[in-house]
Amino acid sequence: MRVRLLDLSEQYRALSEEIRAATDEVLSTQRFILGPKLAEFEKAVEAYCGSPHAIGVSSGTDALLAVLMALEIGLGDAVITTAYSFFATGGCIARVGATPVFIDIDPATYNVSAPALRRYLEKFCHSVEGKLVNENRQTIVALVPAHLFGLCCDMNEMLAIAREHNLILIEDAAQAIGAEFPLENGSAKAGTMGDAGCFSFYPSKNLGAAGDAGLVVCRNEQFAERLRLCRHHGMGAQYRHEFIGGNFRLDEIQAAILKVKLPHLDSWSAARREVAKFYTGEFRRVGLDKKIQLPVEPYAQPGLTNHHIYHQYAIRSERRDALRQYLAEREIETAIYYPLALHEQPCFEYLGYKPGDFPEAERAARETLALPIYPEIPRESQQYVVNCIAQFFS
Ligand SMILES: Cc1ncc(COP(=O)(O)O)c(C=O)c1O
């Protein structure tokens, strides 16, 4: 039986008429850039996330980049982030000329470890004239945690640390739109807890466009306005550029498609949670939870529906590569997110990190394996995946 890692054809079949009508409407108006569909989609995301401002941009990468550029973060600045994420999380920091400072992860959640972050701040940073300066005399200006695989970071801790050290908090929520976190003063959605939240609508995301797309949410109206300029080359009045931005615009066709899909996001995420529940239940039933590490659900509690949106269902095993090969031979697609930790990327060699600097991120890169998950995956396919993994370990 062939099992795809992700198959969006069922989703498209269900919505194809609406999607075609929405794209036809854009084509018939011939309004492709910064038009009404974008404004409608932004309003819909504001309502969905409970955020006062949403600014559509061209990708999740550009969401991060636009935020960093709009904040004028650059040379001489350092930005703290996780050692284990998609490349863009660290890459964007470097692209604006700032230095990424990596922090190790929590081995159960794969998100940045708050204790490790506190240890770094205590050991290597000190305050100079109200600024937080690190061992390389760079000013630490911001903190960019990523909510990996659809599970939020410990945002109570991230907010507390950002407040204590006066850091700008930028959430990389590319994989986590709709995921909720139990803040001390009530639950909140991914992206809305810090100063800015960045989403990706890459086609494979829980909410996926028909190409590249992204979005930023924020609370501050002036910052939202600055981001709107930033995505349009910093242009205020026609051809008057207030600051250097880029072409980070989200086009009308993508916005129209995303607007059709957004009302279904919660049911898709709920279906993914059901898929995850089945995997976890079956793995436990056959005793595989002693041999592989399963995803954790630290925020599963009454009143918090989207405590995990399972963008990925990642297991881990020291025999990951052999297991992957075994599954591939049985036509089961899997993926490795990500085979290298960020400090192990060749392009970040100049940062001077060494093997062993972030042992948990390195171990995750060697051991995690993402299993097939999407809302419509048939139960038989899932059962086959579980059976094959059980055979491998028998
Ligand atoms: C954690 C994370 N950050 C940033 C991005 C970048 O998003 P995009 O691919 O839309 O540029 C992604 C996308 O894969 C991601 O997973």
Which secondary structure elements does this structure contain, and how are they paired or packed?
Blueprint: H1 9-29, H2 36-49, E1 53-57, H3 60-70, E2 77-82, H4 87-95, E3 99-103, H5 114-124, E4 126-128, E5 131-133, E6 139-144, H6 155-165, E7 168-172, E8 180-183, E9 186-189, E10 196-200, E11 214-218, H7 221-230, H8 252-261, H9 265-285, E12 313-316, H10 320-329, H11 359-367, E13 368-371, H12 379-393
Helix pairs in contact: 1-8, 2-8, 3-4, 3-7, 9-12
The protein binds pyridoxal-5'-phosphate.
Task: Describe the structure in your own words.
This protein is globular. Helix 1 packs across helix 8, helix 2 packs parallel to helix 8 and helix 3 packs parallel to helix 4. It is 39% helix and 15% strand. The model has no long low-confidence stretch (mean pLDDT 97). The chain has 394 residues and is an alpha/beta fold. The chain has a 7-stranded mixed sheet, sandwiched between helices. The chain is built from 12 helices and 13 strands. It starts with 8 loop residues before the first helix and ends with a helix. Strand 6, helix 6 and strand 7 form a beta-alpha-beta unit. Pyridoxal-5'-phosphate (PLP) binds next to helix 3 and helix 4.
